[in-house]
Every structure is written in C-alpha cells, then in structure tokens.
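Changelog-adjacent note: as of this version, every example in the card shows the full chain rather than a window. The one below runs 191 residues end to end.
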Amino acid sequence: LEIIKEDEEMYRNYLHLISCKGVGLITSVMLIIYTDNFKSWNAKKMASYCGIAPFYESSGSSVFHKANTSGYSNRRLKGILTQAARSAITHNPTLRQYYLRMKAQGKPYGVILNNVNNKLVHILFSLVLHDCDFELDHEAKELFEPSPRKESLRSGSAPRQEVGAPTPTSGPPKRSRPSLRNEKKLRFLLA
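Full-length structure tokens:
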C-alpha cells in the first residue's frame, strides 16, 4: 500500500476502486497491478482475460450454443473478483438489486455470480475512467440532474442557448420528456 500511496494517480485510482462496496485492498491492488494502473486494458479485455465474459457460438439458423465463458483465464484474478462479487451482493444495494432481479428470472447462481462479476468489472473501470467515486443512486440522480458535460456533448459545437428560448428555425419549444429507457430505469430504481 505504501507503493500505491507514493504515486498520486495510482492512489487516486485505488480510492475510486475502494469506494465501491465489496471491493477491498486485495481486489483493487490486483486490478491496478494487472492493468498497469488502468493504462493498457479496458473493461471488455479484462472480463475476457478473467474468464467472465460470455462468448456465443452461432452459425446461421442451425448452430446456436448457449453462452459460455472461456476456460483459458487467469484463475487467481477470477477468484479474487468472484469474492468481491459475493461481498458486493451482500453489501452493495445496487448489485444486490441486480442479483435479486436475475434470481427472480430463474437464472442459476453461477450464471448470476458471473454476471455480477462482469458488471462489477465494468463499474470499476468506469470509475477510474471518469475519475469519480461510486454513488449508489447515480442513474436516478442523472435523470433528474443532467450533467453539463453530457449536455455539451449532445449539443455538439453549437453555442449553448437558454432553456425555453426558441431558435429561429425550430418554432415553439418542445416539452422535454425522458426517454422510455430512462423511465424504465427510474421505475426500477424507485421500486
């Protein structure tokens, strides 16, 4: 841990990782080591390397096999991530809801645990990529308070106009309504 504290960027990434309940010292240090402090990997590559990414086999309409994970994986890292996923199912409300939803669909425990593993890896990589800590109701907060960064990305390079101000070509202002996907997320989060 002293080595991680010496490097500012590595320590910041470590703090982002442990902000997610279920992820501790060993999991975060192993991820930092294997990913070269998240410089040489992305979440999909790491999921594949750990053997938690599903692979489908299909050929036209005649050949279709269920999704399987690769047997060629880093067993040590997969085991550590599995323990983190088990802990997250117990202590992290977001991943617990995901676990219960998959269980209600009748999925086997191993499949659910693998899915939680995969989701956890993607969440951790996203925390480091966006340089932020884990928030429980991040999606619900985003629905009600859109971030200025996303608004600027949506608008492109056009200058930002005041809300409700009609543009010369647009006519009357349209009512803003959240998309169907966001409504489903909100219903799920509030249920």
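Structural remarks: The chain has a mean pLDDT of 77.
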